[in-house]
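Late entry, written up from scratch paper. The run itself happened at the end of the previous shift, but nothing got recorded in the book at the time, so transcribing now.
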Amino acid sequence: MKPLLGIDISSTAVKLIELGGQRQQIQVMSYAAVGLPADSVVDKQVADPEAVGQAIRKAVKQSGTRTRDVVVAVGGATVISKIVPMPADLSDRELEQQIRLEADQYIPYPLEEVGMDFEVIGPSATEDNSVDVFLAACRTDAIDNRVAAIHLGGLTCKIVDVESNALENACQLIAEQIQLKHADQGIAVVDIGATTTTLNIMQAGNILYSRDQAFGGKQLTEEIMAHYGLSYEEAGKAKRRGGLPESYGEEVLKPFIQDIANQIDRALQFFFSSSSRIDKIGQIILAGGCAGIPGIDQAVEEQLEVATRIANPFANMKVMPRARPKQLKLDAPALMTACGLAMRSFD
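Output as recorded:
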């Protein structure tokens, strides 16, 4: 096994995870999270590679890792992913040629402006003598900016993955936390970040549906600003470190938690109205920075009447002292993507 650093570049932070050991007994070797300047990442695209590169350097130093090879992910509107059926009797080379010939049907950008890859999933569920192929494509400028930031951070980018794939990998690690009454029920994995909440619907370990909403922890920061007359920076620090008045819980935090539950409820209703593949959600898994808010799982469970858990992909891993076990546990819900990327070390 050659270790790879899983680096998740979000809108507010660079998150780094290094895994070691064996797949049967994974170890968290090192971990770090470093904040990013405002607007250095916009709509999941790296806008300022130098600022992101500096944050990566800090994360590497903070983590103490000696690993220099990285797997990173792209996401957002520039990423296109499709399941396409292809004839089952094609060789790998013929399959690649056929996909490239037909790619313009699925990709709304000029093919010379995209990076593209594919993977055969298995026999097609809808067409005889065919296989389902997972096709992923992304604009090359989105890839290049991430790779440039990794290089400026003193590292080498070995793999560029897709965020949804990384999340699927991480969800394999929380399988024991998922309790379904029926195997065909769906699982809603809700990633609540700083500016975006992403609803992912999974079944049998695969993401079938993904949708972003413009809602996240930034709204809570803005509410704190307005309520207590603080600057954005002061409100952010107060949110993370505490020190707000006793009224904060009832007047600001509780309504925000209710807003999150409402957002998830509406997102699920939209899913059910637009898809007939799953008619019931058996479990909700909360991930992202806002998933660490105390009581959020109970609030979502009570409103939606669906069992709700906080994601912790490290629950069954041995955490080395260098990885700061207490802080890692607190940050675990926000590290799903980074962890899923680091799992590529075991491929």
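Residues 79-140 form a domain with the Dna Ligase; domain 1 fold (CATH 3.30.1490.300).
(Scratch paper discarded after transcription.)
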